[in-house]
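#structure-requests
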Amino acid sequence: MQRQQPLGGAEFAPETTYLNSASSGLLPRRSAAALRAAVEESTSYGTMGRDYFAAAHASRAAFARLVDVPAERVALGSSVAVLCALIAASLPPGSEVLAPEGDFSSLVNPLGTHPGLTLRTVPLEALADAVRPGTALVAFSAVQSLDGRIADLAAVREAARTHGARTLLDATQAAGWLPLRAAEFDYLVSGAFKWLLCPRGTTFLAFGGEPDGATDGPDWPPALHAGWVAGEDLGDSNYGLIKPATTARRYDEPHAHFSYVAAEHSLALIEELGVPAIHAHNTALAAYYRRGLAERGLTPRPAPGSAIVSTPGLTGAEARLAEAGVRISVRGGLLRAAFHLYNSTDDADLLLSLLAQEAPSR
């Protein structure tokens, strides 16, 4: 394959060989500069800054463009778990929720622990076939955090539609490198601190539906945690009962201002580079690394097509890799490498050379 250089130019100059975007992404320089400026501003204007909503609204609009829905269909949050709990609370008592075995806890736990709901899990590969008439919601990650497996989005979506079930797609391990259309699902939730390169505390909930931009969908859940930022008139929503916004802003949490200040600039970079270009870059690097592992007699997973490559038998390498300046993670007995826009073939070669010196774990 042709040698690949990082995307993003001078936005990144890490002091490490960073292959851990599946845990958290690197902050671009422009985002770090905006964050430093906002902190400095807070010494004179308070921790909500001079304009509490500008960066949040810009981030909402940018995320909406990335997943191809109107901004009026996107809500701002602080964590995937909170937003999934909102969806769980909207389901009728006795509802069955279907999810893949071993999917990420922030998605599954709010659904599985909600009183009155029954959580049924099956292997990811069997998810579409497991949807049945009594299934109310299919909740699943587009990309599995543990090992990078990509769900068959089309098959699950069609199976859910056939049986009248709604879909909740967790895009936390996908948004930013895997092309997605939120309109194809009832709900799409995404933590933005991984592949979208935002600080922690930046999370989005997008509502699928009609492409004409219609808001206030009939199946939207009650705004159970609506505070003052969820009011239709922000200037008149500080006290007493409020009139919720007619858009998805009714689900907004009072956002972490600093997180969204940086998020505005991180999402702008993703837009400038383009998700298709990032997807091609990431998956080519992952394929290059996967071939190198196979040449060394190792069996990485999943199959080609993911930006995440997880390998059994190498968990003992993590500490030595860290000593060599390589940031990587171990999950479920797998050494998990995640390739993103700031990585290059040099990074993959360095990792492969270090792993060649490693005895397989038993």
